[in-house]
Amino acid sequence: MLNLRRFYTFEPRRLEKIRKSIVPFPQFRKPSDPITPFTQLFSRSASRSPLIFDRGLKRLQRERASKSASFSAYEYLRQEIADRLSERLLDFRRSFRRALDVGAGASNIRRALVRNKLGFGLELLFEIELSQAMLEYGSRRLPLAETPFRTLQVVADEENFLPQLELSGALSGGLFDLAISCMSLHWVNDLPGTLAQIRAALEPGGVFLGAMLGGETLHELRVSLQLAEETILGGVGAHVSPMIEFRDAAGLLSQSGFTLITIDIDTILVPYPDMVTLMRHLQGMAENNALSRRRPWLSRQVLEHAAEIYRDQFQLSKSQMKSTLASSNEPLPENGEDWIGATFQVVYMVGWTP
Question: What is the pTM of this model?
Fold first, then answer.
């Protein structure tokens, strides 16, 4: 299995602390029929959001990936980010009793909390995930009975999870004091609506802690495919998803009613032997293309030309490869001087409820 800790190369962490006046939380008109406050919170936002991503396709991708016998070999990115995100709980001088995990994936946060012994004081973790198979895989890797805190799971779309949360009875014990989202929000069409739901599920003084992929992610792959298609086809298609710029994350949190916002980023450079291997790994971890208006296929000619461009423009130097392996004291792999690099920019977010 690929050990991602070998491949970290960080740019200096940029930290932006934004303290703005609290944006009033949207109050929607109550319909004539009885309806819960949580259901009406996002009804207007969801109907106006452009459908950039095919959520049905993304669910199928997660189902297929998690049912694959080799899925554990492709968990390295999500596992590492879950570890880094959960470790940030140490920055808070308090413990949390009730936590909500939005987009739980294969229970990566739960597994990270147990693995790193960071679940102290936690009484309940409620996991929400689009794919049933993902939750089942996570439960096989770490059975619920072996988790030191109570864990409940529900299958629901991150874009519309509050009704399911209420129907499940999760709110009968009160609101949550912590909400976490790891590597899920960059596939959401209505990001402001999802953040508003997270805000609504938190009690006053609650904390939201999130990590999602940012705009510099896979820029090498995007450029290579665009240049190859422009050369061969005379036009370009959409193959790499648009992602949030870290400068915009603070504004979205503020608009959703969060305050005392902190945004920072990590840039991770992961080496791969070639572009085809990179694309296979993206598919294996269910991070492959799910755009609504995607081009359904790539010709062999385009792929081969894109792979050539990728290697010409983004091949890692010998010193870069050595630096990625320095922490593990491992030798260069075979043909290690001919590998390419893929960038994953991770945007970390912290927001408090007033």
Answer: 0.84
CB 96 within 8 A of CB 178: yes
Residue 312 exposure: Cα atoms within 13 Å on the Cβ side: 10
Alpha-carbon dihedral 248, 207, 109, 272, rounded to 10 degrees: 20
211-247 burial string, b = 16+ CB within 10 Å, else e? Answer: bbbbbbbbebbbbbbbbbbeeeeeeebbbbbebbebe
The terminus-to-terminus CA distance of the chain in angstroms comes to: 43
The CATH number of the structural domain formed by 4-352 is 3.40.50.150
Residue-wise pLDDT for 101-147, tens only, equals: 999 999 999 999 999 999 889 999 999 999 999 999 999 999 999 99
C-alpha separations of 94 from 97, 111, 122, 148, 181 in Å: 10, 21, 11, 19, 19
Structure letter (DSSP) for residue 333: P
**Can you give the residue ranges of every domain in the chain?**
4-352
CA 63/CA 133 separation, integer angstroms: 5
Q: Which residues neighbour 341 within 8 Å (Cβ) at sequence distance 6 or greater? A: 220, 269, 270, 271, 272, 314, 315, 316, 320
* Spatial separation of the C-alpha atoms in residues 119 and 91, rounded to whole Å: 14
DSSP category for residue 130: S
pLDDT one-digit tens code per residue, 251-271 = 999 999 999 999 999 999 999
d(CA 324, CA 340): 12
